[in-house]
From TrEMBL:
Protein name according to UniProt: Flavodoxin-like domain-containing protein
Pfam family, one: FMN_red
Record-linked PROSITE patterns: FLAVODOXIN_LIKE
GO molecular function: FMN binding; NAD(P)H dehydrogenase (quinone) activity
Occurrences of domain Flavodoxin-like (ranges): 8-194
Gene source species: Botryobasidium botryosum (strain FD-172 SS1)
Origin: domain of life: Eukaryota
Family annotation (Gene3D superfamilies): 3.40.50.360
GO CC, any one term: membrane
Amino acid sequence: MVHRAPKIAVIYYSTYGHVHTLAKEIAKGAKEAGAEVKLFQIPETFTDDILKKMGAAPRANDPVITIEELQEYDGYLFGFPTRYGRAVAQVSAFFDRTGGIWAKGALIRKFAGVFTSTASQHGGQETTALTTIPFFAHHGIIYVPIGYASPDLTNMDEIIGGSAYGASTLAKGDGSRQVSELELRIAKHQGETFTQVVGQYVR
């Protein structure tokens, strides 16, 4: 019997580049674990003028995901910064546009995970994942946490992002802190373990 590779979409929204950095590492881990992976961006809702005033990083070259394309993948790893412990408005707007495929049950038995970026240690590292789970539940999408299989998640030698719910980074209030090596390792681990779970289902 020929087994196909699981198809995984790494779908992200990144303001200052931190989530994009995590997304690339997660995609790397997923590919090394045997997945067919594609990076996508969440559609922007801000104008160029607003983004410039915010000091946002230039948009990456990855394509913007469409609602219809969600149906083509076995699993999704969603990455986005937090706003008050939940997904940013751009992500909420994208989720709100999925009513048509929800009515068809098009995403039932798909898989999803979450990764994020916060300004501080206690700025939504876990709640951002938790407040996204209702979207998955309403679509019948199976949420896959990373647990504590990665020893880096219990590292006490430095301040790091990441939790049992998914990889994350701490960007500082002004976005000046960059993703650390430990956070990159956790992100890669998430891509690998997510692929293993989805791959079992696909097989």
